[in-house]
């Protein structure tokens, strides 16, 4: 790709990410039950595997949400209006973003993502596709406080949080994040958020345990990443992928299950797991209409409209600060 003149990158320091990954892994492997935050799935390999997941026939959220953006482009344009700076949380490959842009004609684009390589490629792609649009790529963890580029401060803002990524957080963390972004985006801001609905358990479990094994590879890549980046010797071949619906918490849980007793080191620290013990690697919470509305209100946002009419059910909700 040549020089893209409407693109600027605001990078976090790599050392920071590395230190946080190490700390989360040691803390997570030391607690019982073991658990590692889902954000660490997204190294370059993991981000590419996630893209493959979104193309699986069983993984409906991406298709449902894309369909909603397409079908309701006119209503979205009416409700949001033109000229907003779009701040996308966890932009990944930004595949749905052009659909939104065609609907609402934004004045600037600020993709925020923790996966630097992925962010750079997709931001560059968008900047060349929309040459009149200033793009400020921010490499950062959107669950932390993020400083927006000064240039966009005077512009009215739209937070764009697609893909049901909010589902990765337990309610209290989700509320913290929504309140944080309410403060960062400021008065007058809007938020367009994708939320996955509660539905048939078999359909949900298949979406997170596909027969082709792509989701299994995505989950197991977390262990490979630990081996690659933190000098681990985890015997990845002794682990299996598990995805189960937890009805009490209304969420899909992903786990890495030890198939036999295992012992391994990470960075010189030793860990042991008994056969069938798991590392809880992801939650994907699902929300009914009132659940989602309550969550948004608790986070300081007032729901204005929701588009929720595809099968399998998925909702796009527009809320105001
Ligand atoms: C990117 C967090 C929305 O929870 O559906 C997909 C991640 N994990 N398959 C989700 C994921 C397994 C995904 N999110």
Describe the overall structure:
With 321 residues, this protein is an alpha/beta fold. Helices cover 37% and strands 26% of the residues. It contains 10 helices and 14 strands. An 8-stranded mixed sheet has the order 1-5-4-3-6-7-14-13, with helices on both faces. Helix 4 (73-80) packs across helix 5. It is globular. It starts with 6 loop residues before the first strand and ends with a strand. The relative contact order is 0.17. The mean pLDDT is 94. The structure holds N,N,N-trimethyl-histidine. It comes from Sphingopyxis jiangsuensis. Its EC number is 2.1.1.44. Residues 21-320 form the Histidine-specific methyltransferase SAM-dependent domain.
Task: Summarize this structure briefly.
This protein has helices at 14-30, 44-54, 61-71, 73-80, 97-104, 116-129, 171-185, 201-207, 214-230, 289-298; strands spanning 7-11, 34-35, 85-89, 108-113, 135-139, 157-161, 190-196, 239-246, 251-258, 262-266, 269-273, 278-285, 302-307, 314-320. It is of the alpha/beta class. N,N,N-trimethyl-histidine is lined by residues 53, 61, 163-165, 167-168, 208, 215, 282, 284.
């Amino acid at each position: 790709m040549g020089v893209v003149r409407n693109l600027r990158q605001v990078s976090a320091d790599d050392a920071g990410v590395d230190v946080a990954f190490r700390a989360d892994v040691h803390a997570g492997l030391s607690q019982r039950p073991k658990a590692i935050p889902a954000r660490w799935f997204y190294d370059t390999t993991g981000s590419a595997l996630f893209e493959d997941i979104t193309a699986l026939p069983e993984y409906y959220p991406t298709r449902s949400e894309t369909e909603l953006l397409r079908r309701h482009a006119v209503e979205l344009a009416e409700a949001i209006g033109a000229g907003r700076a779009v701040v996308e949380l966890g932009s990944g490959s930004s595949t749905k973003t052009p659909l939104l842009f065609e609907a609402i004609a934004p004045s600037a684009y600020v993709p925020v993502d923790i996966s630097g390589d992925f962010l750079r490629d997709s931001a560059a792609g968008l900047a060349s596709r929309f040459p009149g649009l200033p793009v400020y790529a921010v490499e950062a963890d959107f669950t932390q406080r993020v400083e927006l580029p000064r240039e966009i401060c005077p512009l009215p803002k739209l937070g764009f949080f697609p893909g049901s990524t909010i589902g990765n957080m337990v309610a209290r963390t989700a509320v913290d994040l929504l309140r944080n972004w309410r403060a960062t985006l400021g008065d007058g801001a809007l938020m367009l958020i994708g939320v996955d609905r509660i539905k048939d358990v078999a359909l949900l479990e298949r979406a997170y345990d596909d027969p082709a094994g792509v989701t299994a590879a995505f989950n197991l890549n977390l262990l490979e990443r630990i081996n690659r980046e933190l000098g681990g010797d985890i015997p990845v071949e002794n682990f299996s992928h598990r995805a189960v619906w937890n009805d009490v918490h209304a969420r899909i849980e992903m786990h890495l299950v030890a198939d036999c007793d295992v012992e391994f080191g990470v960075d010189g620290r030793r860990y042991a797991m008994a056969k069938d013990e798991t590392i809880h690697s992801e939650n994907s919470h699902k929300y009914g209409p009132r659940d989602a509305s309550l969550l948004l209100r608790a986070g300081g946002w007032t729901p204005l409209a929701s588009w929720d009419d595809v099968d399998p059910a998925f909702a796009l909700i527009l809320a105001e600060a």
